[in-house]
């Protein structure tokens, strides 16, 4: 998936690639920016009583 990040007059194009997934439990996309490098984002869903807890861990 392609995306654009904008900050004032500055902008950068990027691409997101899914590196790992377990449907309904985990998702680990990697966002890649040509000028800024990459970042991995780990999302995990955990039961929390009657609700769901979302755990998010990012690593540039």
Describe, in plain words, how this protein is organized in 3D.
It is built from no helices and five strands. It has 60 residues and is mainly beta. The chain has a five-stranded antiparallel β-sheet with strand order 1-2-3-4-5, with no helix packed on it. Strand 1 (2-7) and strand 2 form a beta hairpin. The mean pLDDT is 92.
Give the gist of this structure.
By secondary structure, this protein is mostly beta strands. The chain is 0% helix and 80% strand.
Average pLDDT figure:
92
Number of helical regions: 0
User: Helicity level, as a percent range?
Assistant: under 10%
- The general outline is elongated
Tell me about the largest β-sheet: 5 strands, antiparallel
Instruction: Give the SSE order as H and E letters.
Output: EEEEE
Radius of gyration of CA atoms, rounded to a whole number:
14 Å
| Adjacency order of strands in the biggest sheet | 1-2-3-4-5
Name the structural class.
mainly beta
Low-confidence blocks of residues = none
Report the sheet-strand fraction. Answer: over 45%
Distance between the termini: 18 Å
How many extended strands?
5
Task: Summarize this structure as a short list of keywords or feature phrases.
60 residues; mainly beta; five-stranded antiparallel beta sheet; 5 strands
List the helices and strands and how they pair.
Elements: E1 2-7, E2 10-22, E3 26-33, E4 37-48, E5 51-59
């Amino acid at each position: 998936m392609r995306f654009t990040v904008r900050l004032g007059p500055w902008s950068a194009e990027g691409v997101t690639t899914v590196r790992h997934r377990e449907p309904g439990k985990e998702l680990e996309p990697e966002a890649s920016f040509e000028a800024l490098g990459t970042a991995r984002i780990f999302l995990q869903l955990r039961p929390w009583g009657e609700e769901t807890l979302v755990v998010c861990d990012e690593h540039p």
